[in-house]
């Protein structure tokens, strides 16, 4: 099975050169030759896009949304999405960032209900002209900050992303809940919410409450095959693929931002032996965990 597209691979595909940083980047859409379409791929980054002056179809999970006016689009790495341009030459902005850039306070704080993080939410919002102007200003500030050498640049960039998310929340009607239309989508949302609740791990003594597809299915009171079929239909990924992606994301965070031993990290993630954790991590990332940790220290 092919891996997820990275920010660097995305930039290469669109002729954007090298991204400013490995964890977050942004660009003006008019600086890119417009593509009539892009495929439904898994990507390992979040994306916030302000899309103007174009008409097309945005497909997300099992939904198709027609776009004929300025749109604010949210793409989550858990859900494949695709785009088909029908008319116009697009302008606007895009901001891309990885799971590592998204700190836990960001995901659990006041913007946790943003369409960016809620798989069952509205992936497309239609901002009025005044909001388009405000959003454009925030994107321009983010673009100016990306090449800076300021020592706390990551915090500043994270602040601008938070402001973009807060701006989007103001566009969502109060108490709006966008109920998924099918049983498969509702089950997928329940699973993904439950999966997100397993993290972060905050002490070496903490272990995952649910460790495999069977345990998640039992908790959701469905057969494992039914859960797997629903996830495949809605997200294009299996239960096991979702679990593996979350384990890798948490492992990366702990390797980079904690002093826990590899054995402690592996045990917390449900691996009985450090060698099993090492094999899993290398298979998913191409690097053994100790090498990934060392690279992080060298780049910090």
Automatic annotation (TrEMBL):
InterPro entries: Homeodomain-like_sf, HTH-like, HTH_AraC. It comes from the Bacteria. GO terms for molecular function: DNA-binding transcription factor activity; sequence-specific DNA binding. Keywords: DNA-binding, Transcription, Transcription regulation. The keyword DNA-binding applies. Residues 214-295 form the HTH araC/xylS-type domain. It holds the Pfam family HTH_18. Transmembrane segments: none annotated. PANTHER family: ARAC-FAMILY TRANSCRIPTIONAL REGULATOR, TRANSCRIPTIONAL REGULATORY PROTEIN. This is AraC family transcriptional regulator. It comes from Hymenobacter nivis.
